[in-house]
Structure formats: structure tokens, C-alpha cells
Amino acid sequence: MAEQCPPAGSPYPSDCEVMEGYRTIARTKESRQTDPQRELAIAKAKNIRLLLLDVDGVLTNGSLLYTGQAEESKAFNTQDGFGIRLLREAGIDTGIITARTSEVVARRASELKMRYIYQGMANKSEAFKDISNSSGLRPFEIAYMGDDWLDLVLLQQVGLAIVPANGVREVKEIAHFVTARAGGEGAVRDACDLLLLAQNLIAGLLQKYRNR
Question: Rounded to whole angstroms, what are the CA distances from 23 to 3, 65, 127, 167?
């Protein structure tokens, strides 16, 4: 049952009212995905053996932070990381294809034991072809998640095209699934949960963690 905010006694919104506003926005985003769209996404997700991800705007919120020493830093979401871990435990591989190159990204991918790490890929199709050949997977067994025009080509080649809530309009138009949350704020976890749900893997994983 949803929390009820106390009667307003001020012309300014209370913290409770602000949070309820955020919840309403989230529910609205979820409702934009019609039932037929979700059913199609789940049907496609049943076949996925590999989830490939863009980085900026997907694993992060898209912000680029530079220090005075010209070093680059990024913030990653821990729930996204745990979702990737759950996929690995369920036998679903993960990987990164990004146009930029960053030591921070390499470190994060290594921490999460991601199988494929392709950085500096101006032509992401080349990386996708290489991964497809080395993995032996067919396009319908691969999902890709991207948020901008550089991702359009891959999103149209894979079996399951996923876009975070912050993705630009053109990529959302061709997506099979748009996450409720934005990049860097749990969008990748939403994608992981979709795959686990579609393949009936959630119950087994959850029981494993309950019994630890």
C-alpha cells in the first residue's frame, strides 16, 4: 500500500509530496510500454545468451568528469553491477562496446568479470561481428543496450534492442524494450531483470541468496 502524505500545511511541497511526485513520474514511464510491447520483449529475451552494453548514458549517466591532471572519472551504479553478476551466475555472458576509451571502464568491466570488452570502437559493427564470430552466437541470441545515434546500427542487428529511459527519441523508436530507469541509475539492472524474468531464473537465484 502506497504511503499517504499528511495534509499540506504549507504552500511548498513536503519531502513526502516530492517523493510521491518522483514515483508518479516513474509509474508514467513504465506505463508507456504497452502490454504487447512488453510481451514481445519477454519473448525475445528468452533466447538471449549475451548482453552487450554501451557505457556512457547506459552504465553511467553520461556525465564526463575531468580532473586537473586530465584524468577521467565515471560513476557506476551498484545495482547495475549486481544485475550483471546475477546474469553471470545464471550463465548469461556480458560485454561492453563503446566508442570511448577509459581505464576506469576497463577496471569496472574487469571487476564485474565481463567477457567482452571493446573500447575505442568508432565502428561498433566491427566489434559486434568479432564477438559474434568468437562466441558462435547468432544475432537473435544477443541483446544490446544503447542510448544514442552511435548505437542505432547495433540495435537493429541484435535479437533484443534495449534503450534506457534517457535514450534519445530515435533509438527509443526502434527499441524492443525501454527501461523504467535512466542510465547510471539502474537501467542496466532493469535489463538484467528482464532477461532473468523471461528465462524463469529469478526464483532460483533469489532462493540461493536467501539461503546464504
Answer: 11, 29, 38, 20
Contact partners, residue 7, CB within 8 Å, separation at least 6? none
Shortest CA distance to 177 belongs to which of 191, 167, 166?
A: 191
Which residues make Cβ contacts (< 8 Å) with residue 61, sequence separation at least 6?
A: 75, 166, 182, 183, 184, 185
Rg from Cα positions in the chain: 18
Its pTM stands at 0.82
CB 147 within 8 A of CB 168: yes
Q: Encode pLDDT of 137-196 as tens digits.
A: 999 999 999 999 999 999 999 999 999 999 999 999 999 999 999 999 999 999 999 999
- pLDDT bucket at 11, cuts 50 / 70 / 90: low
pLDDT of residue 1: 44
SS3 67: coil
Distance, in Å, from the CA atom of 71 to the CA atom of 42, rounded to the nearest integer, reads 40
Q: If you count DSSP H runs as helices and E runs as strands, how many of each does the chain have, helices first?
A: 9, 8
- Written as one string, the DSSP assignment of 93-153 is EEEEE-SS--HHHHHHHHHTT-SEEE-S-SSHHHHHHHHHHHH---GGGEEEE--SGGGHH
Q: What is the residue whose three cell numbers read 532473468?
A: 196
